Amino acid sequence: MTLFFYKPEGAWAADFIPFHKNGRYHLFYLLDWRDRDRRGEGTPWYQISTTDFVHFTEHGEMLPRGGHDAQDLYVFTGSVIEALGQYHIFYTGHNPHLRRQGQPEQGVMHAVSDDLLRWRKLPEDTFFAPAGYEPHDWRDPFVFWNDDAGEFWMLLAARGTQGPARRRGLTAVCASTDLKHWQPREPLYAPGLYFTHECPDLFRMGDWWYLLFSEFTERCVTRYRMARALSGPWHTPADDVFDGRAFYAAKTASDGQRRFLFGWNPTRQGETDTGAWQWGGNLVTHEIVQNEDGTLSVRPPAPVSAAFSRRTPVWEAGTTLQAEGTFACAVAGALPATCKIEATVRPGTGVKGCGLMLRVSDDLDSAYYIRLEPHRQRLVLDSWPRAGDLPHWVEIERPLRLMADQPARLTVFVDGSVCEVYAEGAAGSRVAMSARLYNLKSGNWGVFAQEGSATFDALALSTLP
């Protein structure tokens, strides 16, 4: 059972659409019951709100799904903006049945509200992909005021009609002065790399503009690009993702001082470690950090970390494992179902791997391993037993700068099947790595080293009060 990372009761959440107002984050999201027989077809928008990403107020359904023949049978992703005296939602109306009738299965739709709680759809404002774009891929509108152009801009996940089908994805632009009539502009970003650029998001931080999108062509991840101006050129940083496979469709919102990234950790079919990744899961929030060179990284929001206030230090003097040519570990005790683990790890020269063990069996024969690999400069998730001839869970890995005898900091949140790892390495390297842990339900936790030595300091286990 998952208690801490939000999901709706009896359902799952996907594609959070954040909006900040008066100190509160309003998180609209796509709700999926995964029960078409009882609940019917289609996806509505619901809303929760929070001030700390720990306690949530549920506001219920915001945009109901349409009927079988309606454009918005599935109310898919969009954005929220306050402008022209009202709140506006621009969203995707998706209906796969319309394609068979010779109509576009996706269109951009509009709803308005005076209080963020009661919304009125404006079907007359619906518009579809113009010439030059594939008609069934026209979704995820992100609307903002472009001060330089003196008009509202809408970014869209769209596809061109030329070139290899798997590389036609682009970030389209439409413009408006009244939020009702939209005219196409030149695409903002069309690199010819991905099938589509889902859930676009845009913000400025300091001297840089950042464009976010999620893609599933090469990897299912949320990526970002950076530019000095909206006109580009858009640069790809060396590490252009915020997290790994188990974090998707992330969008951002800011209170004017800090900016947060809202995505979801997907479930796996059959609730097994090898099950196919599913659409939807639990909310995960990262805080965005701007590095000195303008690149971005993430860390856990301070209120999320502080919520685990019952802190128990472990091995206050630290411990060193010597495992030259072999494997060594130390067990720290039982792992609670919901907890936070903190550790500082100093890899020894030449060590092949070291880190934390989760849900370790008493005979040490099964465990999950959060492993630092200095010789490969990465962080990975591994387990034993594992399926197939694989060195680790190849979808759950992140690059991380690691140096011998230099501290790396791990912060791990475990909540039922949800696992969130934050790591700080050498030279300011900082990454997040989300995962799901299903097969091993309980056990101990501890530290390990393989083919070398490692020192572990500042270990602590924290639980909720």
Structure description:
- With 465 residues, the chain is mostly beta strands.
- It folds into two domains: 12-305, 5 Propeller (Tachylectin-2, Chain A); 308-463, Jelly Rolls (Sandwich), CATH 2.60.120.
- It is 2% helix and 55% strand.
- It has two helices and 30 strands.
- Strands 20, 21, 22, 23, 24, 25, 26, 27, 28, 29 and 30 form an eleven-stranded antiparallel β-sheet that branches. Strands 1-2-3-4 form a four-stranded antiparallel β-sheet, with no helix packed on it. Strands 5-6-7-8 form a four-stranded antiparallel β-sheet, with no helix packed on it.
- A hairpin with a 2-residue loop joins strand 1 (12-21) and strand 2.
- It is globular.
- The two termini are 18 Å apart.
Features:
465 residues, Tachylectin-2, Chain A, Jelly Rolls, 11-stranded antiparallel sheet
The CATH class of the largest domain is identified as Mainly Beta
Number of helices: 2
Whole-number radius of gyration?
23 Å
Question: Level of helix content?
Answer: under 10%
Main sheet, how many strands, which sense, barrel? 11 strands, antiparallel
CATH homologous superfamily caption of the largest domain:
Glycosyl hydrolase domain, family 43
The geometry reads as: globular
Beta strands, count: 30
Instruction: State the separation between the terminal residues, measured CA to CA.
Output: 18 Å
CATH architecture of the largest domain: 5 Propeller
The protein's oligomeric status is: single chain
Structural class: mainly beta
Ranges where pLDDT stays below 50 over 5 or more residues in a row are none
